[in-house]
Recover the amino acids of this structure.
């Protein structure tokens, strides 16, 4: 079954604000665009100290406010129009974005070839913007805003609310979630069960009062038999609830996104006492993590 929604315009598209602690496809695009401008951050999708240094150096060179955060003004100075025949790190950024946001396999070659032009055209049609195969400011803005879909290697997709493949989230949220899941899976205690994140373009979603902006994700607690992906959901009060493993999962979630976790709702009193989670009604059988951004139109999601 396809996970892609039909073509639709994105009137609320905006350039994501990124800062230290963020991960994912948008951070990778930022790094590659900085490299296009003769900065030298690693192209690893992790907004660490060297990326902060590169952002600050670029901001200073362009006469922008020097705060180390990639906001609209910084993106505006970084984004360059690219078309067929162009090459370089900015094209690599474009190709990686298209692969992540459209769930396609587009080789990241740094050369704007016919396949890249076709992918740009398909995205422009999907986004309801002018389809000319040229990646200009409107295409970049819509592409950077568009949600990402997680790699399920260390996650198992659950669907308790009947929302199908509603696992889409901002690139940072998805990158941070994937990193935490990889870290936890490496402990040998099974995969992490993933409930809903958001629909592909956000908006109302059944069974949730939030989950509309790609920054909320539901996860299930870990079982003592490590069968949380196959044996059904439990509560923190269940005999098969593994408190130590669930605590390790929460710690992995926080470690993978330092400064970018707004809250984690889960009602295990021991984890609450440890300052790892917060009590909220109806959160006995799942963890709700809310990520945040340095700047966000909705203050509930601003760090």
């Amino acid at each position: 079954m396809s996970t892609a929604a039909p073509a639709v315009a994105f009137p609320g598209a905006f350039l994501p604000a990124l800062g230290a602690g963020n991960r994912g496809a948008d951070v990778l695009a930022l790094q590659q665009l900085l490299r296009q401008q003769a900065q030298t951050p690693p192209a690893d999708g992790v907004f660490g100290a060297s990326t902060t240094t590169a952002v600050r150096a670029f901001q200073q060179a362009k006469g922008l406010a020097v705060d180390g955060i990639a906001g609209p003004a910084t993106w505006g100075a970084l984004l360059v129009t690219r078309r067929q025949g162009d090459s370089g790190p900015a094209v690599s950024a474009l190709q990686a974005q298209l692969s992540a946001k459209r769930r396609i396999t587009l080789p990241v070659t740094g050369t704007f070839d016919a396949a890249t032009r076709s992918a740009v055209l398909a995205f422009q049609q999907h986004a309801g913007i002018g389809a000319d195969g040229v990646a200009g400011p409107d295409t970049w803005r819509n592409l950077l805003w568009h949600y990402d879909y997680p790699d399920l290697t260390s996650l198992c997709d659950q669907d308790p609310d009947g929302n199908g493949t509603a696992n889409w989230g901002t690139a940072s949220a998805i990158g941070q979630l994937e990193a935490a899941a990889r870290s936890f899976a490496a402990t040998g205690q099974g995969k992490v069960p993933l409930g809903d994140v958001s629909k592909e373009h956000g908006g109302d979603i059944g069974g949730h009062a939030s989950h509309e902006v790609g920054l909320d994700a539901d996860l299930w607690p870990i079982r003592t038999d490590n069968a949380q992906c196959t044996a059904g959901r439990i509560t923190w009060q269940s005999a098969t609830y593994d408190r130590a493993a669930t605590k390790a999962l929460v710690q992995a979630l926080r470690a993978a996104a330092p400064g970018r976790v707004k809250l984690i709702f889960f009602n295990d009193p021991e984890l609450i006492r440890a300052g790892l989670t917060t009590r909220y009604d109806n959160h006995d059988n799942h963890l709700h993590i809310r990520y945040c951004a340095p700047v966000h139109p909705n203050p509930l999601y601003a760090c």
The mean pLDDT is 95. The longest helix spans residues 171-185. The CA atoms of residues 262 and 291 lie 5 Å apart.
